[in-house]
């Protein structure tokens, strides 16, 4: 893979971003997709395509693949209907992956991809994506995915739903690991994070570029849980968390954001985050709950934002 970027590829709205950063640090998202360290990569740290992780960067540092400047301002900044969709799509195409998960890697992790032989699973998540897009009118959104209990498979559903949105070459997806009690997404994706969500929320000077990680799946990024995991509710009720979610959704109209959370029945985290998001979804283990248990779990969500339940199994 060659890095064919030129000076023309750089941020064309740099001055607007600089002004925005002066006004509000949490909206300093110009570092999106930027490397915080050259050591990021798969679990073995090689990133060279040997073993898991597929084709890598061929020995180039992660910073060589920085696509942090390939951003556009939102329609809220320029006015309705003024975002050039062609420009957005061209910038999305130029997003670089320092490594790519191979089909075998994806099959092993039960992550869908367009050419997967498991057509039933692919079609299930494509249909789910379509229904959500119909509900949102085609607009991007933030959504909480929570299990009805331990082992329900919320992380599995969250990751595959985000991957389904990333199928579209004109869209991007961001998955945020908000299960601070038992984070798992970074392990599934063979990522060794240096920092994550709680580090960003805990420090007003923390650059968001340091917590956005390529996943090895085109157009899909991960924000891991972070190094501090005590008192999750204090992080999620903070003004900075609310401001962050609003900014990341409004600024990038092509991006769909999925929040993987702890089970709704075991902590208040999912309910707190659901109040900050557009939609919420419940994951139910197949044959693992009573009707009353399912109803109790579903009733914990705001009915106006609750889009329904998915049976996993």
Q: Mind telling me the CATH class?
A: Alpha Beta
For the terminal residues, how far apart are their CA atoms?
38 Å
| Beta-strand content estimate | 5-15%
User: Can you list the strand order of the major beta sheet?
Assistant: 3-4-2-5-1-6-7
Shape: globular
Oligomer: single chain
- Mean pLDDT across every amino acid position: 76
What is the share of helical residues? 25-40%
Q: Which sequence of SSEs, written as H and E, runs from N to C? A: HHHHHEHEHHEEHHEHEHE
Number of domains: 1
Sheet/helix structural class: alpha/beta
CATH architecture: 3-Layer(aba) Sandwich
Instruction: Kindly state the number of beta strands.
Output: 7
Structure report:
By secondary structure, this protein is an alpha/beta fold. The chain has a single domain, classed as Rossmann fold, CATH 3.40.50.300. 34% of the residues lie in helices and 13% in strands. The chain has a 7-stranded mixed sheet, sandwiched between helices. A hairpin with a 5-residue loop joins β3 and β4. The longest helix is centred in the middle third of the chain and has 18 residues. It is globular. The N terminus is likely disordered.
Provide key terms for this protein:
313 residues; alpha/beta; seven-stranded mixed sheet
In short:
This protein has 313 residues and is an alpha/beta fold. Helix content is 34%, strand content 13%.
Secondary-structure map with pairings?
Layout: H1 14-23, H2 75-78, H3 85-93, H4 103-109, H5 119-136, E1 142-147, H6 154-166, E2 172-178, H7 185-188, H8 197-202, E3 213-214, E4 220-223, H9 232-236, H10 239-251, E5 255-261, H11 269-276, E6 279-285, H12 291-299, E7 306-312
Parallel strand pairs: 1-5, 1-6, 2-4, 2-5, 6-7
Antiparallel strand pairs: 3-4
Helix pairs in contact: 5-6
